[in-house]
Write a structure and sequence with these properties.
- The structure is a homodimer.
- The first copy, chain A, has about 220 residues and is mainly alpha-helical.
- In chain A, about 75% of the residues lie in helices and about 0% in strands.
- The longest helix of chain A has 30 residues.
- The radius of gyration of chain A is 21 Å and the shape is globular.
- Chain A binds a DNA duplex (30 and 30 nucleotides) through helix 3.
DNA sequence: AATAGTTTCATACAATTGTTTGAAACGCAA
DNA sequence: TTGCGTTTCAAACAATTGTATGAAACTATT
């Protein structure tokens, strides 16, 4: 076995292609061509295409979650067990944003693969995905420690919205660039992270905005 | 021609199936079975599978955008040409959220289809999608009228984040329900809309939150 | 060197896909 | 009714997919 060259060559090629083009567009023949191995190698080493995808997803999930938790713990340690809410959310969205945005050549296939996995819900991945909820619960718990007076429902919504802004920014970065004529700089990753975190934190910490909309006014007058 | 029964039966069946299961999982044979028509009917009436998808997307895009603009105009008229920022964003995210959330039997295949189209970027749709940017610009312009003192970059980010929260909520509604043990009520559509709008508006209207995070503190101390 | 186990390879297989074909059925004006 | 354009249908087609096979090549232990 030694280095298992073929196996790892397949993994690398598959991750690269899946990250770039999505699962449905990439065939086994594409992968083996990219990896310079024989077609039968995939079934020999992984059993099936689905098992290859599943192994890839599990491995990368663990890596991403570990990095998130590492940053979360660093933040909590720095705060003596209670992290600032901004830092908690930064630990949640920072790793994936850093991996998927910024100059093209610096993006990580790992992070892009994970985004693909969250978009195209292919059967082998769907079966595993429940694990992620346990992972998010840890962040929800940390948020509760940071904002003990907030309702749990609001905390879940804040967590959810933070992920929403991060993922959507990755998925639609091109559109935002076009829409803004390039004025929104998606390559300034730390600025993007700051915007996402700020948006989520504002929703969590601002009390009763009291901005009455026209709709509310109209609804009141209708009574 | 008269009613073109077969044609519309195909459109309805295709929209339903695509909305439910996504483009890559639905074959022409699935569609014709659901529509109770012959396999060759799709190619006869639409030319190809891609043209069927394209026609579906164009039609539905126009319908969704029209509804959004209708609500936007209603809000601007009510405010004498300048709508409240909340109402602008509500016009943007309301239609799609109302169509995709709420009790199962009330959801519209149209709205769900549009979400599918925004997730699985299949070639025939990708070619048309640029039109959507022009549509979003109208909302950006309305936002500028509502908040003339805000920077354009911030406005674009606010628009982007509003769509992010709306779309992500639709896509991950099941996960949020599980994560929160059912405490986040995704069936209360108007509450969801209010949360999304509030989150986006806060980001747009709150000035200098001045919440210093541990990361910033640490960075300062490191100097 | 001989052998046993592992890995690679070209090739074939069965299933599924979108599309095409040509005849049959239909609708309807003359 | 006749005739003609339109629509439907069963069947076949070509291409692509993941997977399986059996022989060849390789590796390493005896």
């Amino acid at each position: 076995m030694a280095t298992d060259q073929t196996r790892t060559a397949i993994l690398i090629a598959a991750e690269r292609l899946y990250a770039e083009r999505g699962f449905s567009d990439v065939t086994l023949r594409d992968i083996v061509a990219e990896a310079n191995v024989n077609l039968a190698a995939v079934n020999y080493h992984f059993g099936s295409k689905d098992e290859l995808i599943a192994e890839l997803f599990v491995t990368r999930s663990i890596a991403l979650n570990r990095e998130r938790l590492r940053e979360l713990r660093a933040a909590e340690d720095a705060g003596g067990g209670r992290a600032d809410i901004s830092d908690i959310l930064r630990a949640l969205v920072g790793p994936i944003l850093r991996g998927c945005l910024g100059p093209e050549n610096q993006r990580s296939a790992v992070a892009q693969f994970m985004i693909r996995a969250s978009i195209e819900s292919v059967p082998p991945i769907r079966r595993i995905k429940n694990k992620e909820i346990d992972h998010l619960r840890k962040f929800a718990a940390a948020m509760k420690r940071a904002l003990p007076e907030s309702s749990e429902v609001d905390l879940f919504w804040g967590l959810h919205f933070a992920l929403a802004m991060a993922h959507h920014t990755i998925r639609e970065s091109e559109r935002l660039t076009k829409l803004s004529d390039g004025r929104c700089d998606l390559d300034d990753v730390e600025d993007v992270i700051a915007r996402v975190v700020r948006g989520a934190v504002l929703g969590l910490t601002t009390r009763v905005p009291a901005a009455k909309s026209q709709a509310k006014v109209a609804a009141r007058e209708a009574r």
